[in-house]
Specification:
By secondary structure, this protein is an alpha+beta fold. The chain contains four helices and three strands. β1 and β2 form a beta hairpin.
């Protein structure tokens, strides 16, 4: 099976959906934040390894705790995944913290600041032109 085949894409989507359900409903570890989402999943074509990109809404400590909780629950998650999804091999899970959502929010905030500064500079220039016209 090739990496970008239709079958691999379907397996990635199904594993992502089931992982999200397991993390949301089955794990009782208090270290795992309730605001945890599975952003993307990449299952290797041989079905031996799986990278799960996780996003946690919260501070850096909550992200570290959630990642530690997920890593300690890998065996349980793999067992549940094997029971729900019938694959030839159940992949070995590797959780990776995904920073793309936080990066996007930060960039959006910076763009808003730049636009606000540009608007205030244009207002100041318009006032200067208006004052020159009155004289």
């Amino acid at each position: 099976m090739r990496k970008n085949s239709i079958k691999n894409t379907r397996i990635n989507g199904e594993v992502q959906r089931v992982l999200a359900e397991i993390i949301r409903g089955d794990i009782k570890d208090p270290r795992i934040s309730p605001l945890t989402s599975v952003v993307a999943v990449e299952v290797a074509p041989d079905l031996k390894h799986c990278k799960a990109y996780i996003s946690v809404l919260g501070n850096e400590q909550a992200q570290k705790d959630t990642l530690a909780g997920l890593r300690s629950a890998e065996g349980f998650i793999k067992n549940r995944l094997a029971k729900i999804i019938n694959l030839r091999n159940t992949p070995e899970l590797h959780f990776v913290m995904d920073q793309s959502i936080a990066y996007g929010v930060d960039m959006s905030r910076k763009i808003d600041e730049v636009v606000k500064n540009m608007v205030s500079e244009e207002d100041l220039e318009a006032e200067d032109v208006f004052e020159e016209d009155e004289e």
